[in-house]
Amino acid sequence: MSKSSKKSASLARKARIEEMRRAEKARERRGRILTIAVSTVIVAGLVGFGAYYVDNANDKDERQQAAAKKPVKGEKSWNAKKLTQNHVAKSVSYPMNPPVGGDHDQAWMTCDGSVYTKAIPNENAVHSLEHGAVWITYNDKAADADVKTLADKVAKTPYTLMSPVRDQAGALMLSAWGKQLTVEKASDPRVQQFLTKYVQGAQTPEPGAACTNGVDAD
Length: 218
Fold this sequence. Notes:
CATH class of the largest domain: Alpha Beta
Strand content: 5-15%
Keywords: Membrane, Transmembrane, Transmembrane helix
Radius of gyration: 34 Å
Organism: Streptomyces aurantiacus
Transmembrane segments: 31-54
Protein name: Membrane protein
Largest sheet: 6 strands, mixed
Pfam families: DUF3105
């Protein structure tokens, strides 16, 4: 091969190599652009999801607050001013069953999501209501599945307690200070409405008072 031919071949090789380098750089640029674009979409999606999640959480809070302001259909109410709050060391005859207020024992029932399988003293339970607890009770008419469902709910909810009251009128009853609701099923939406409204609700005579370190029956 002549010198001129070798030189031409060398130039051609260099040209191909240069072209390959340019093509490779172009691919790298496209890759970087694609990566940036995908990352931007992902970040935007995460930001959008975060905003959506926050909005949904805010909406849920607003719905719960709105529900807490509405009266619970079918609930009974007693004049809070007529429900005395004296500490006594004797049994009390209450005008309603289960009681929703009145004189009571100086010790409260532990009501930090407490599920009692045996009857508890009314006088201690009423003291728990004074602290803002909701007391869920049931009798033999209540279905076992409903009792279990409510027990699971109570166990997850501070300022609540649950126990059997065999001689109460309704199968399932929810009591707060001065308030009471009777339901037939645990699935009744008023159960959650009652809890939302009255667990440490506006009716509480002593808001913020402890529900822990009280009397334990079981």
